[in-house]
Design brief:
Helix content: 25-40%
Number of domains: 3
CATH superfamily of the largest domain: Ribonuclease H-like superfamily/Ribonuclease H
Bound molecules: zinc ion
Number of strands: 13
Largest sheet: 7 strands, mixed
Order of helices and strands: EEEHHEHEHEHHHHEEEHHEEEEHHHH
Shape: globular
Strand content: 15-25%
CATH class of the largest domain: Alpha Beta
CATH topology of the largest domain: Nucleotidyltransferase, domain 5
Number of helices: 14
C-alpha cells in the first residue's frame, strides 16, 4: 500500500462562472505528488505541467498566485496524457491524501471531460489531511491553511513557493509524516463525485466511532429527505434497530437531527442532510451516526428547543405583522366610510341587483388601496 499525497493547480474561466465549461469549472494545469510507503517514508515524486485546452487565459486571481505563465503551460502535455501517466505512477494500491476535500473531485471532473477512464473504486475513500490534522491537533472542526500548519509544526520551508503543486504536495507529505496515521488514518473521507446509483450501491462506512451513510440519488428532494433508510436508525455496532429518543427534527436549514438508543450500545446521535449532485441533479442524503452520552443527547435536545423557539418567534412575528396589516386596513376603511367615499361603491351593488356576491367581492378586493378606491369612486360619482 502507498500513500499518494497530491496537489493540483487549476485555472478557471477568465470571464467568470457563466462562461464555464459544463461539468468542469476548473481545468487542471499542474499535478504534483509525493509517494509515501506505509511507514510514511518518501519513495518518489511526480510533477508535471498540463497544457490548457479549455481556458486559454489565466484567470487574474490565479495569475497572482502562479509562478508560471500561459506560455510555460503551453509547453506542457495534454491532460489526457499527463493524467494517464500520473495514475500509472500512483499504482493500484494508492491511498490518496490531499489538503482539504476538493482535489479528487476536480481530478475526476477533468478525467470525465477529457475522456480518461475512471477506474477508481466506488466509494472512493481518501485521507483529507487538513481534517486529520484538525482531529489530532485542533478541535476536529476548524480547518487551517497548509502554510499555517507548516509553520506550526516547524517544518523547514524551502524557497519553492506555495501554490506550486509539487511544493504544496511536499509540504503536505511533510505534515503527513508528523500525523498519527495509526490512530487517525482510519478516518477516511469519501469522495462524492460519483454518488451511489442504486440501493445496492449505497455507501455504509463504519469508522469505528461513527458511521457515514450515503443514499442513492433520487429526483425528488422531499422523497429523499423522508426516505426510511435515512430515518430508520440501526445501531451501527450490532445492526439492531435503535429506538428514537428524540425523533428526527429539522433545523429549517436543510439539516436533520435526532437521538436514538440501542439497548446494548446506548445512545446514538444522528444527523443528516440532503445534497444535490451537481452532475445529475439528483438528490441524495448523507447521514452520520455517532455513539454519544447523556450530555451529547442533551445537547441535541437543547438544539431542538432552540429551533422550536426560533420557529415560534418567527410565527409570532408573522402573526403580529398580519395583525398590523389588518388594523391598518380597518383604519383605512373606517376613514373611507367616515369621508363617505366607500359608499360611492354602494350604488354599484344595487345596479348589479341579484348578483350580490360578486359586487361585495369587488368592493372587498378594492378595499386595501383605500385612498385610491376612494378617489376612483369619487370620480365615478361625479
Ligand atoms: Zn447496538
Amino acid at each position: 500500500m502507498h500513500y499518494i499525497v497530491f496537489d493540483l493547480e487549476w485555472n478557471q474561466s477568465p470571464k467568470g462562472k457563466e462562461d464555464s465549461v459544463p461539468g468542469m469549472p476548473f481545468e487542471i494545469i499542474e499535478i504534483g505528488a509525493v509517494k509515501l510507503n506505509e511507514h510514511l517514508e518518501k519513495e518518489g515524486e511526480y510533477c508535471e505541467l498540463v497544457c490548457p485546452q479549455e481556458y486559454m487565459t489565466i484567470h487574474f486571481q490565479i495569475r497572482k498566485m502562479l509562478s508560471y505563465t500561459m506560455k510555460d503551460l503551453k509547453k506542457g502535455r495534454l491532460f489526457q496524457d499527463v493524467c494517464k501517466d500520473f495514475l500509472a505512477w500512483c499504482g493500484d494500491d494508492a491511498v490518496f491524501c490531499t489538503w482539504g476535500p476538493g482535489d479528487l473531485t476536480e481530478l475526476e471532473r477533468n478525467m470525465n471531460h477529457f475522456g480518461v477512464a475512471n477506474h477508481f473504486p466506488k466509494p472512493l475513500l481518501f485521507l483529507d489531511l487538513q481534517k486529520i490534522y484538525s482531529m489530532e491537533y485542533q478541535d476536529g472542526k476548524v480547518r487551517s491553511s497548509l502554510q499555517h500548519v507548516v509553520e506550526e509544526l516547524k517544518i523547514p520551508e524551502t524557497k519553492g513557493d506555495y501554490h506550486r503543486a509539487i511544493s504544496d504536495a511536499r509540504y503536505t507529505a511533510a505534515v503527513a509524516q508528523k500525523l498519527d496515521f495509526e490512530q487517525y488514518g482510519k478516518y477516511k473521507s469519501v469522495d462524492l463525485y460519483r454518488i451511489p446509483d442504486s440501493v445496492e450501491d449505497e455507501f455504509h462506512l463504519n469508522f469505528g466511532t461513527y458511521e457515514k451513510y450515503v443514499s442513492h440519488g433520487v429526483e425528488d428532494h422531499e422523497q429523499c429527505a423522508q426516505d426510511k433508510k435515512l430515518r430508520i436508525v440501526k445501531c451501527y455496532v450490532c445492526q439492531k434497530k435503535a429506538k428514537a429518543r428524540t425523533p428526527w427534527f429539522s433545523d429549517n436549514q436543510g439539516r436533520y437531527f435526532g437521538v436514538f438508543e440501542c439497548t446494548e450500545h446506548g445512545l446514538i446521535k444522528g444527523r443528516y442532510r440532503v445534497k444535490q449532485d451537481s452532475e445529475t441533479g439528483l438528490y441524495y442524503g448523507i447521514r452520520i451516526l455517532k455513539q454519544t452520552d447523556r450530555e451529547g443527547a442533551d445537547a441535541v435536545v437543547e438544539r431542538k428547543r432552540r429551533v422550536e423557539e426560533k420557529a415560534a418567534r418567527r410565527l409570532e412575528a408573522r402573526r403580529q405583522e398580519a395583525l398590523e396589516r389588518k388594523q391598518m386596513a380597518n383604519a383605512a376603511m373606517k376613514d373611507a366610510f367616515d369621508k363617505g367615499l366607500v359608499e360611492g361603491v354602494q350604488p354599484k351593488k344595487k345596479k348589479s341587483g341579484k348578483k350580490k356576491k360578486p359586487a361585495t367581492k369587488q368592493a372587498a378586493s378594492q378595499m386595501p388601496a383605500t385612498s385610491q378606491v376612494g378617489a376612483n369612486s369619487a370620480t365615478r360619482q361625479i
